[in-house]
Amino acid sequence: MIDIILFQPEIPQNTGNIGRLCAFIDARLHLIHPLGFKINDKNLRRAGMDYWKSLQVLEYENWEEFIISPQKPGRIFLLSTHATQSIWEAKFEKGDGLLFGNEGGGAPAKVHEWVHGNRLTIPKYAKELRSLNLAVSVGIAAYEAIRQISLSD
Questions:
Q1: What residue numbers bound the domain in which 15 lies?
Q2: Which of 24, 53, 120, 131 minimizes the number of CB atoms within 10 Å of its CB?
Q3: Which burial class, exposed, middle or buried, applies to 108 when counting CB atoms under 10 A from its CB (0-12, 13-18, 19+)?
């Protein structure tokens, strides 16, 4: 229904949990290298548990390889704390991709430029806090997209 794209994720436990979520919702997981860990990392496997075996994972050497790939989703939304449009204002469709920057620095300027206006944020109510954990953000955004798509079917 949707694709999840991680730009250079750094923490294996987050990626493992996101992989588990992707398997659970039948979403493809795109991993853009370099990663901050090895795919065979025991922490990744522990967090993803046996779900990792049922997951379709696509890996790319770098951002440039991803953007020319025929496997990338047709429409991609970047989730960012710098966006002004919330996930509730977006109109998600089947086949959309949700792109997330890494835990340390988010997404670089070239990624922000590439998505043009397709930047979304998760509404926050505690203004003094910076952001959510990556795996939590993916879960929130993925389920909002699925909710919208399910309503339109």
A1: 3-152
A2: 53
A3: middle
Q: What is the mean pLDDT of residues 118-141?
A: 92
| pTM for the predicted model, two decimal places | 0.94
Side chain identity at 74, as an amino acid letter?
G
Residue 121 bridge partners (DSSP):
86
The secondary structure of residue 105, as a DSSP letter, is T
Q: Are 148 and 92 in contact (CB under 8 A)?
A: yes
Q: What 3-state class would DSSP assign to 72?
A: coil
φ/ψ of 97, rounded to 5, equals -115, 140
Tens digits of residue pLDDT in 5-23: 999 999 988 998 999 899 9
pLDDT at 92 over 90: yes
Number of domains in the chain: 1
Q: Quickly state the pLDDT bin for 131 (edges 50, 70, 90).
A: confident
CATH number of the domain that residue 11 is part of? 3.40.1280.10
Nearest to 63 by CA among 118, 111, 101: 111
